[in-house]
Structure formats: C-alpha cells, structure tokens
Automatic annotation (TrEMBL):
Catalyzes the conversion of acetate into acetyl-CoA (AcCoA), an essential intermediate at the junction of anabolic and catabolic pathways. AcsA undergoes a two-step reaction. In the first half reaction, AcsA combines acetate with ATP to form acetyl-adenylate (AcAMP) intermediate. In the second half reaction, it can then transfer the acetyl group from AcAMP to the sulfhydryl group of CoA, forming the product AcCoA. InterPro entries: Ac_CoA_lig (IPR011904), ACAS_N (IPR032387), AMP-bd_C (IPR025110), AMP-bd_C_sf (IPR045851), AMP-binding_CS (IPR020845), AMP-dep_synth/lig_dom (IPR000873), ANL_N_sf (IPR042099). The modification N6-acetyllysine is found at residue 625. This is Acetyl-coenzyme A synthetase. It comes from Oxalobacter paraformigenes. Acetylated. Deacetylation by the SIR2-homolog deacetylase activates the enzyme. The keyword Lipoprotein does not apply. Residues 544-625 form the AMP-binding enzyme C-terminal domain. The lineage of its organism: Bacteria, Pseudomonadati, Pseudomonadota, Betaproteobacteria, Burkholderiales. Keywords: Acetylation, ATP-binding, Ligase, Magnesium, Metal-binding, Nucleotide-binding. Its cofactor is Mg(2+).
Length: 660
C-alpha cells in the first residue's frame, strides 16, 4: 500500500495494495459503486438477495420490508430463523467443526482454545440449563460478566432458546445494573463470581446481590454464576446456581427455538442526552444479516483470518464483532480478558504476535495510550514484536485523529494494512460509514463513505440536504435491516428521539454532526450534536452524570460538559455548586475526590469527571436555564466571545474561570 504523491496537496490518499484489492470481497471502487447502485435501483431486491444468500432461514421470508407503520419498520417479517443456529450449527455442517472459534487469552496469559464443536456443545448445555429453570422465549436475561468464553456462551444460549439478553458492562455499578435489570423486567441474571483485570479480582456476583437488593420489585428468580476465580461469594439457596452444576447433566443437543425474523435478539442500554439510559432493541434476522455482511465487506474476512476485536461484550462492538458476526462467518476470534497496559504496555502487540492476529479492531483511545506508552519506554514499542501476521486494521467508537491514524498505519500496519475507520452506533447494529478495505482510498481522520445499502446524508435543521463542504446533521434516510427497532418499553421515546419531527419524521437522526469533503464526498464526523459525551469511545449522557452528582448530599447543583482530551478523546468537566459555602484549597480537593468516587460508585469509573470546578452559581439565563455553551468555553480555557446579554449573573463567569 503506498501513498500517491500525484494527488492534490491537501488530500493525501492511501491505497490498498494490488494483492489486497484483488482478493478482497469488494475488489475496487467499481465493485463498491455497483453495489451502491444496486441498492439505489431496487432497495428491497438488494436486501432480499443478500438476506437469502447470507442467512440460513428455517422458513424463507416472502416479505422484505414493511413500511406501513413508520418508524416501526419490519424486515423479512414472515421468515423464521435462529441466530445461534446460524453462528454454531452452520459451522458444524460446513467443515468448521474442529476449527477454533475462540482463542481466549486470560489476564495472566493462560490460553484456552475452543472449537466450534465444543462451543456448540457448551451453548446447548447452558441453553438446556436455562430451560430447566423455566426460562422461555421472550424472557429477558441480564448478563453481567467480563470477557470470557462463558459470556459468549451465555449470549448464544439465550439466542438459542429465544430469550432476549441484555448484557450490562461489568464496570457498571450496582445502581446502574439495578436500573437496567428493572427496566428490562429480567427474570434471570447470568454473572461470574468475580472478574480479573490487571491482576486484580473484582466483584461481579456481589454487585448483582446489591443490585437486586436495591429494587424490591424486580422479577429475577434465578442467578447463574460462572466460577471464574473461586473466591468466596454469598449464595442464595433456591435462587443462585453455579453454571457448572446447572449444565453438568444437561443434554449436549438443544433444538433451536425457531423465531420470527423480527423476534428481539437483545436489548443493549445506551446513554441518552436526557433521562435514563435507553434500551436499544435489536431484531434477530436483520441484525444478523448486517453482522455477517459487515464481516465480509468491511473486514474482508477470510477462512484463514484470526480476528481480534478488543471491545468488551458489554458494548455493541463486542456484540456484533465478537459474539455474533465473526461466528456466523466461521472465523477464529481472539478474546482478551485483561487490559492493554498490564502487566506491561506491550500486551496488545504481544497478543497479536502470539496468536498471529490478522485483523485487529480497536479504539482510538487505546491507540493513543499505547503511543504514549511506547514513546515513554521503547521496550513496549510495537517494534519489539512480530506483527507481520496483520493484514487489516480497524478503528471504532470515536473520531480517530490523523496523528493516531498515521501512527497506527506506520507502526502497527507497517504501511501495508488498510485501516477501516468505522462509524456506527449501538442503535445501528453494525457499520454505517467505513472504507471498503480493498477499494476505498483512505484519508486519515475520515471514515470515508457509507456502506452499500446505507443511505446517509448531511442535512440542516429542517431536514434539507446540505451541499458537500457544509457541516450539518448526520441522518440515515432509509430504514436498514440492522436498525434499532424501538426503545425497550418506550415506543414514544424511540419515535421522538430518533425520528425528530423537525426533520420531517422520516430521517433517522444519529445524534452526530458531519461534514462531507467538497471534492470526494468523504464524511468526517464532527462530534455529537446532543448532550452525549464520548469518553474513550463510551457514550455518556451529561444528564446522567449531573443527576448523580446532584444526588450527593453536599451538592446543590451540578452541570457537566465535555472537553477535548489527548488520551480519551473527550473528558468530563463538572461545575459543582455545594450546599455549603465555596470550598478552597485542600478542602476543595478532598470534596472533589469524594465526588469522583461517588460517580464511580453510582454509575461507573468511566463516568468519573476528570475535572471538578466549584462555584457559587452556574451561568443561567433569566428564565433559569443553564448556559452550557459558556461552561464548555470555560472548561476549554477559551475566551468567551459569545453573546452573554441573556445571562442573569455575568459575574459568575469570572469566578468559574478562576476556579482551577
Ligand atoms: O459519536 C459517534 C461515536 O460513537 C457514538 C456511538 O456510540 P456507541 O453507541 O457507544 O457505539 C460505539 C461503537 C459503535 C456515535 O454516535 N463514534 C463511533 N464510531 C465513530 C464515532 N465517531 C467518529 N468516528 C467513528 N469511527
């Protein structure tokens, strides 16, 4: 892959090598354009053909897309399938039975390999175990586990019996877990005794106990516990079951529950700009189709690939590109329990070297922290490892700055591996905008062009498409198979939040701003247009953090804004007004430390404000509305140039500015 020096100066393109392009699923821009055209000309026909070719249907569908009740679209609605059958049995039938499905690298470096045959057996046994507890199709099961083969087994077992899983990231606190269990109306929780990260044993089961105790009205009747560490845990007889005991005498075959294509596969909670987290509901058929196609198109997956996506199964990336997509295409995945910097900052490169990873998919935050680590200590630099197995790199979760892109390209990909910068969201189920690695000329910092079949536009506040070169709101203007179906239990919120009236009610609003390059039409994501922050690739609602801070006994009022951060992309800056008088010096430091701990406990360490500033008041309009745009300017240390005539208390700006 070489840079093309003849291109105009400001845009420097990076092209795939001829060999890569020739063997790719989409072998050049003409092939890409042909697919886009096919979708444009016959939208339903395009999706129908792909769905027939890629998904194994028990009962073939005859209806492709039902648009009678927008935005509640239905895809392949009279088809029947089972997602776990598509991910597991398919591989037993097509010669992959003895191929490694999962290569699990534990925190301490121990490696466990699980073949498709073995994975199928374990999933069937757990599925039968769950059935023996009375768990049925449509029941909700919360999975609160760390990265482990068992977590994937748990997700697949739910899919096998038609239960709807809701994975809650293992870093979430008891109140957050409790809220999600309650909202989903879960009847069971699958967890582990503890999780191991960076050599430390951290609780999981104890947090489940706390979460259940916090909500007397929850519907959980069973808790299934995977024994990871063997540490002592409290055991509630009748409710709690060890996973190994539950599955021990179960049959190794579990006939899949054939479900309708629209049957929900999972709920995954995601932060909103207001109120509680939203339970994004995904379907079985459409979601699986896009998980498979994006593995083929964006990741150009081949039977010989070793695919490593570093995302935790608690996030959408871990769902689509660990638990479902790679298995449905018969790939071998690496699953890593630990953290990138333990026991040393060369761990990621060591794992790539050790397992001969060929496709590596990670987040810009991880890349930036490893650049820093390798600059500080050459011992952990990627040059110390053999990375020659790599052929493709991917980035996800937040914008990747050109410096980090170029470092990734040079030091990890050795100027040989294309980088797919994939823009998408929990709600989209899979990639929306990303380069096709054998086709798209790459530009650092741009996620380039929409995938075939995705109709993405940049519009103004009234929904009118803007010319290239003008920044606006990113929207998707046609329903697509892997789209969110609703917000669990709140159809109205789904409708008003994602399909805003102001834009005409027919455009899916992603929540991001974007601009297209005036010449290439390439997209650059300019950041969220709502009050959702993106810290290390994790979406967090400012309201969520504010309401937790305000619930602290010492706090009268709090406002939270995002601030650019070299490492985490964005960091949280909280402006806090205490009930008592303004704290100074050491007292302020102690209270700030307490508040950080409080947020960690109440939500998760991810939500912990990096900076806390105290003031006597917040900048407010005469009608009492907090002027967050001014707080954003103060947090960034910039000069205030905006109009402040509507501000009731201008003097407060000076105080907040000097509050560090
Ligand atoms: O703001 C965008 C950002 O992450 C948001 C979605 O977050 P979440 O639902 O947690 O899913 C993250 C993993 C898909 C988006 O609205 N985002 C995600 N990928 C990118 C990105 N921003 C810029 N470039 C990306 N590649």
């Amino acid at each position: 892959m070489a840079a093309n020096p003849s291109e105009k100066k400001e845009t420097h393109f990076y092209y795939p090598s001829e060999a890569f392009a020739q063997n790719a699923a989409i072998p050049g821009m003409n092939a890409y354009r042909a697919l886009c055209r096919a979708a444009e000309e016959d939208y339903k026909g395009f999706w129908a053909e792909l769905a027939r070719e890629n998904v194994l249907w028990r009962k073939p569908f005859t209806k492709v897309l039902n648009e009678t009740n927008p935005p509640f679209y239905k895809w392949f609605e009279d088809g029947e399938l089972n997602v776990s059958y598509n991910c597991l049995d398919r591989n037993l039938e097509n010669g992959n039975a003895d191929k490694d499905a999962v290569v699990f690298e534990a925190d301490d470096g121990t490696v466990t390999k699980v073949t498709y045959r073995e994975l199928h057996k374990r999933v069937c046994k757990l599925a039968n175990g769950l059935k023996s507890l009375g768990i049925q199709k449509g029941d909700r099961v919360v999975i609160y586990m760390a990265m482990s083969v068992e977590a994937i087994v748990a997700m697949q077992a739910c899919a096998r019996i038609g239960a709807i899983h809701s994975v809650v990231f293992g870093g979430f606190s008891a109140p957050s877990l409790s809220e999600r269990i309650g909202n989903a109306g879960a009847v069971a929780v699958i967890t582990a005794d503890r999780q191991i990260r960076g050599g430390r044993h951290l609780p999981l089961k104890a947090i489940v106990d706390d979460a259940l105790a916090m909500n007397e009205n929850h519907a959980v009747e069973n808790v299934v516990i995977y024994r990871r560490t063997g540490d002592k845990i409290d055991f509630v007889e009748g409710r709690d079951h060890w996973m190994h005991e539950l599955t021990q005498s179960q049959a190794e075959i579990c006939e899949p529950e054939w479900v309708n294509a629209e049957h929900p596969l999972f709920i995954l909670y995601t932060s909103g700009s207001t109120g509680n987290p939203k339970g994004a509901l995904h379907s079985s058929g459409g979601y699986l189709l896009w998980a498979i196609l994006t593995m083929r198109w964006t990741f150009d997956i081949k039977p010989t690939d070793v695919f490593w996506c570093t995302a935790d199964i608690g996030w959408i990336t871990g769902h689509t590109y660990n638990a479902y997509g790679p298995l449905a295409v018969g790939a071998t995945i690496v699953l890593f329990e630990g953290v990138p910097t333990w026991p040393h900052a060369g761990r990621f490169w060591e794992i790539i070297d050790k397992h001969k990873v060929s496709i590596f998919y990670t987040a810009p935050t991880a890349i930036r922290s490893l650049i820093k680590a390798s600059n500080e200590n050459a011992q952990f630099a990627p040059e110390q490892y053999n990375l020659s197995s790599l052929r493709l790199l991917g980035s996800v979760g937040e914008p990747i700055n050109p410096e980090a892109w170029l470092w990734f390209y040079k030091h990890i990909g050795k100027e040989r591996c294309p980088i797919v910068d994939t823009f998408w969201q929990t709600e989209t189920g899979g990639h929306v905008i990303a380069p096709m690695p054998g086709a798209t000329p790459l530009v650092p910092g741009s996620c380039t062009l929409p995938l075939p079949g995705m109709f993405v536009r940049v519009v103004d506040e009234t929904g009118q498409e803007l010319p290239w070169g003008q920044g606006g709101i990113l929207v998707i203007n046609r329903p697509w198979p892997s789209m969110i179906r609703t917000v669990w239990g709140n159809d109205e919120r789904y409708k008003t939040h994602y399909w805003p009236e102001e834009l005409g009610g027919k455009l899916y609003q992603a929540g991001d701003g974007a601009i297209r390059d005036p010449e290439t039409g390439y997209f650059t994501i300019t950041g969220r247009i709502d009050d959702v922050l993106n810290v290390s690739g994790h979406a967090l609602g400012t309201m969520e953090v504010e309401s937790v801070l305000s619930a602290h006994p010492m706090v009268a009022e709090a406002a939270v804004v995002g601030k650019p951060d070299d490492l985490t992309g964005e960091s949280i800056c909280a402006f806090v007004i205490l009930k008592n008088e303004l704290p100074k010096g050491d007292e302020a430091k102690t209270i700030a430390a307490d508040l950080r701990k409080w947020v960690s406990q109440e939500i998760s360490p991810i939500a912990r404000p990096k900076e806390i500033r105290f003031g006597e008041n917040l900048p407010k309009t005469r009608s009492g509305k907090i002027m967050r745009r001014l707080l954003r300017v103060i947090a960034r240390g910039e000069e205030i140039t905006q109009d402040i005539s509507t501000l009731e208390n201008p003097a407060i700006l000076e105080q907040l500015r000097n509050s560090l």
